[in-house]
Every structure is written in structure tokens, then in C-alpha cells.
Write a structure and sequence with these properties.
Shape: elongated
Helix content: 55-70%
Number of helices: 5
Oligomer: single chain
Number of strands: 0
């Protein structure tokens, strides 16, 4: 008697409908988590994190948006911290500087996200 491959079985565990829309929140979580874990690898770490997050996002728009979220959140955090200490002008200048710096540093993350989403076939 020949055994069949587990994927060939037709029970409920293998007949789940596939998600074609992707998940923006899941993509952000994967990108942030892997970026933190792989930050010791200069260019390849963010590229891998972006690729995995892009595969989770499925569409290129969601993937690039998810890659930009950490940079925007860090800039907003810088503004909020400076404003909380009464340094409004410094806060907005520092926030703009942090945003520009983070966007430049996020180039491999954005490239990986674009590549991961572009290579993901709609399920």
C-alpha cells in the first residue's frame, strides 16, 4: 500500500481558504522583530526582514507602507519626547532629522519589502 503525501489529504486541516489580501499588521510585526534580531548584519539584516515582511504583506503597496512605519513612529516619538520637555522647536527639527535618517537607513528594508511582495504570488 502506497502512502500519500500529507498535502494530498482532503480533511479540514488542509482545505483552509487561502488569504489573498495579506496582513499589514503582521508585515509590520515581522519587519520590526526581524530588524531588531538581525541588526548586527548591516545591509543583509534589514533586507531579509523586509523580504519576510513583504511576503506577509502580499501586495507591494502594503509592504512598502509597512517598511515605512518604523521610521515614522521613531520620528513621532522623538517629537513627542522633546515637546514633553518643553522644547517644541527642537522637537520638530529633531523629529525631521530622525525621519530623514531613518528613511535613508530603511532603504534595504524597503527594497526587501518590495522584492518580497513582488515575488509573492497571490494565493
Amino acid at each position: 500500500m502506497a502512502t500519500s503525501h500529507p498535502a494530498d489529504r482532503s480533511d479540514a486541516r488542509y482545505d483552509r481558504p487561502a488569504r489573498a489580501e495579506g496582513s499589514f499588521g503582521e508585515a509590520v510585526a515581522w519587519m520590526v522583530g526581524l530588524s531588531i534580531l538581525l541588526m548586527w548584519i548591516p545591509v543583509v539584516g534589514p533586507l531579509v526582514a523586509g523580504f519576510v515582511g513583504g511576503r506577509r504583506a502580499v501586495t507591494v503597496g502594503k509592504a512598502v507602507g509597512a517598511a515605512l512605519v518604523p521610521a515614522i513612529l521613531l520620528a513621532v516619538l522623538a517629537v513627542v519626547l522633546f515637546v514633553a520637555f518643553g522644547l517644541e522647536i527642537v522637537g520638530f527639527v529633531a523629529g525631521a532629522g530622525v525621519l530623514i535618517f531613518m528613511l535613508v537607513e530603511s532603504i534595504p528594508l524597503i527594497a526587501g519589502a518590495w522584492l518580497g511582495a513582488a515575488l509573492t504570488s497571490p494565493r
